[in-house]
Design goal:
Layout lengths: L1 E6 L3 H13 L1 H6 L2 E7 L3 E3 L18 E3 L8 E5 L2 E5 L4 E4 L4 E3 L2 E4 L3 E3 L16 E2 L4 H13 L3 E7 L9 H15 L6 E6 L9 H13 L3 E3 L4 E5 L4 E4 L4 E3 L2 E5 L2 E3 L1 H4 L26 E3 L12 H20 L11 E8 L2 E7 L8 E3 L6 E3 L4 H18 L50
Parallel strand pairs: 1-2, 1-9, 2-5, 9-20, 11-18, 12-13, 12-18, 13-14
Antiparallel strand pairs: 3-4, 6-7, 7-8, 10-19, 15-16, 16-17, 21-22, 23-24
Helix pairs in contact: 1-7
Length: 444
C-alpha cells in the first residue's frame, strides 16, 4: 500500500489532499493507498479574511470552519502536534510519541509570525499601542483598538521579508484611509507604510503604480527601512542603521518563519525553517520522496493562496510520476495572482510569475473582463467573491475555469520593458516563463 502523509491542513494541505483523493479514489476505496493529513487543531481560518476584521467588514465567525469538514471522505485527519520528521526513516514523529510512516511526504505547514524575533516588539506596548493582524486573535485586538483610537500617526511596518500575503500591508493602509475617512477623522490621522523593500512592491512596474496610488491617497511611504528594534514605551521604530520613526499606533507585520518542527527535522529546511524546495518540481532537496508547497517552501514566489492552488495542480501530477517511476516535470513557473483592495469599493489585480512581473492589460484574456494594474469596482467584487471561491472551489481541489496553473501572457501589455535578472535561488528555476510566450521579459 502506498502511504501519503500531508503535514498541514491549511490552504495548501487541504487542496493537495482533496486533489489526490480524487485522483486515487479507486485505490483509496480498495485499500491500496492511504492519505493522512496532520494538523494541531480543527480550526481552518480563511486567512484573506483577517485583513477585513480590523475594519469590521468581516466578523471573526466569517473566517472559521472545521478543518476536518474540508477534507474528502477518504482522507484521514490526524489532530496532533508535529515533533519532527526523520527523512532517513520515512517517518513523522508526533506529540506524545506517536509516529506516522510514509512513502510520500508532503509538507504544507505554512508560515508563522515570529514577533519575538524583533527586540522590544512583544515587550511594553504589545497589544496596547502595537498590534498585528496576521492571526485571528491579533486582528480582533486591532479591531477593538481602532474602535477607540482618536487619531495620530499610524505606522504600518513590514519588519522583514518574506511574509505571507505580501500585498496585505498595502491593502491595510488603503483600507485604513477609507476607514478613517468614513469616520470623518482622516484629517487627524497620518498613515505611514514602512518597508525594507526599495518601493511599494518587489517588482518595478507594480511598485511604481502602487507607489503613485499611495501618494494620491496621502499615505507616506518609507522604503529601505530595516527594523532592528521597537521601543514600545517611547513609541519608536529603530532601524539597524539607527534611524527612528515615531508612532502613536503601530501595526506590525512581524518576521515570518516556517513551522518549528522543520528546524528539528535533519536537513529539511533553511535557517528560517522554510523547506528547501526545487522551484519547478516542488520536490524537497532533502530526499526524493518529500515534496513541499504553499507558504512552507523557500521558493522566490508570493506566499499566497493562489500560489498554493497553482502548485497543487503541478504537484498532483508529480506525485503520480513519482509513484510510477517517471521523471518529474519542472512545470511550476511561480504563477501568482492577487486582488489588492485599494479602498472605496475598488481593487487592483496583478498576475505574475518567476520571470514576468505584473503588467497592465486584461485578465484572464484580451477580452477581460478584469483590468490589470488598474483600480476598478469589478476587481473589488472579485476580491469579495473569492471567499466563496475559496471554500467551494479551491479547497475542494477543483480547477478554476479559464485560469491555468501556468501563467498566460494573453491580455498582458509588455511594451518596451527592460530585461532584468531574476532572483537567484539555490538549484535554479524553471526556464519557461509563460505557457504561450516563453520569451517574456525577465525581471527581478
Amino acid at each position: 500500500m502506498n502511504r501519503i502523509v500531508i503535514l498541514g491542513a491549511g490552504t495548501a494541505g487541504t487542496i493537495m489532499a482533496n486533489r489526490l483523493s480524487k485522483r486515487y479514489r479507486a485505490e483509496l476505496r480498495a485499500g491500496d493507498m492511504s492519505i493522512a493529513v496532520v494538523d494541531q487543531d480543527d480550526r481552518h481560518v480563511y486567512q484573506p479574511g483577517l485583513l477585513f476584521i480590523p475594519f469590521r467588514t468581516y466578523d471573526p465567525s466569517d473566517t472559521i470552519k472545521p478543518r476536518q469538514r474540508q477534507l474528502g471522505e477518504h482522507v484521514t485527519y490526524v489532530q496532533a502536534a508535529i515533533d519532527r520528521v526523520e527523512p532517513d526513516e520515512d517517518r513523522v514523529y508526533l506529540a506524545e510519541g506517536r509516529t506516522l510512516d510514509y512513502d510520500v511526504l508532503i509538507v504544507a505547514t505554512g508560515t508563522r509570525i515570529a514577533p519575538e524575533e524583533t527586540e522590544g516588539l512583544t515587550a511594553e506596548g504589545w497589544q496596547d499601542t502595537m498590534f498585528e493582524f496576521y492571526t485571528l486573535d491579533g486582528a480582533i485586538a486591532l479591531r477593538d483598538a481602532l474602535d477607540d483610537w482618536d487619531g495620530g500617526r499610524m505606522v504600518v511596518n513590514i519588519v522583514d521579508v518574506p511574509i505571507k500575503c505580501p500585498i496585505a500591508p498595502l491593502e491595510f493602509v488603503f483600507l485604513a484611509d477609507e476607514y478613517f475617512t468614513r469616520k470623518q477623522m482622516r484629517d487627524r490621522v497620518t498613515i505611514t507604510l514602512v518597508t525594507p523593500l526599495d518601493g511599494a512592491f518587489t517588482r518595478p512596474i507594480a511598485a511604481k503604480s502602487l507607489g503613485d496610488l499611495l501618494a494620491e491617497k496621502n499615505i507616506e511611504l518609507v522604503p529601505e527601512f530595516a527594523t532592528g528594534e521597537v521601543d514600545g514605551p517611547n513609541r519608536k521604530l529603530i532601524s539597524w542603521d539607527d534611524r527612528t520613526i515615531d508612532f502613536d499606533l503601530l501595526v506590525t507585520i512581524p518576521a515570518h518563519m516556517g513551522a518549528e518542527y522543520i528546524g528539528r527535522s535533519p536537513g529539511l529546511g533553511d535557517d528560517m525553517q522554510f523547506v528547501l524546495t526545487d522551484p519547478g518540481t516542488l520536490q524537497a532537496k532533502r530526499k526524493p520522496n518529500i515534496f513541499a508547497l504553499g507558504d512552507a517552501t523557500n521558493l522566490p514566489t508570493s506566499k499566497a493562496g493562489s500560489v498554493a492552488h497553482f502548485e497543487a495542480e503541478v504537484l498532483e501530477d508529480n506525485v503520480r510520476r513519482f509513484f510510477t517511476g517517471e521523471p518529474l516535470e519542472a512545470a511550476f513557473d511561480g504563477h501568482a495572482n492577487c486582488f489588492i483592495e485599494t479602498g472605496f469599493d475598488k481593487a487592483v489585480l496583478i498576475d505574475f510569475n518567476y520571470d514576468v512581473e505584473p503588467l497592465p492589460g486584461r485578465f484572464p484574456s484580451t477580452l477581460g473582463p478584469m483590468p490589470l494594474l488598474k483600480e476598478s469596482r469589478l476587481n473589488h467584487w472579485g476580491k469579495l467573491a473569492f471567499k466563496w471561491v475559496y471554500w467551494h472551489l479551491l479547497l475542494p481541489g477543483r480547477d478554476l475555469p479559464g485560469i491555468p496553473a501556468r501563467m498566460s501572457m494573453r491580455g498582458k501589455r509588455r511594451g518596451d520593458l527592460p530585461r532584468l535578472q531574476r532572483h537567484h535561488v539555490q538549484g535554479g528555476a524553471p526556464e519557461a516563463a509563460a505557457s504561450d510566450e516563453p520569451e517574456a521579459t525577465h525581471v527581478a
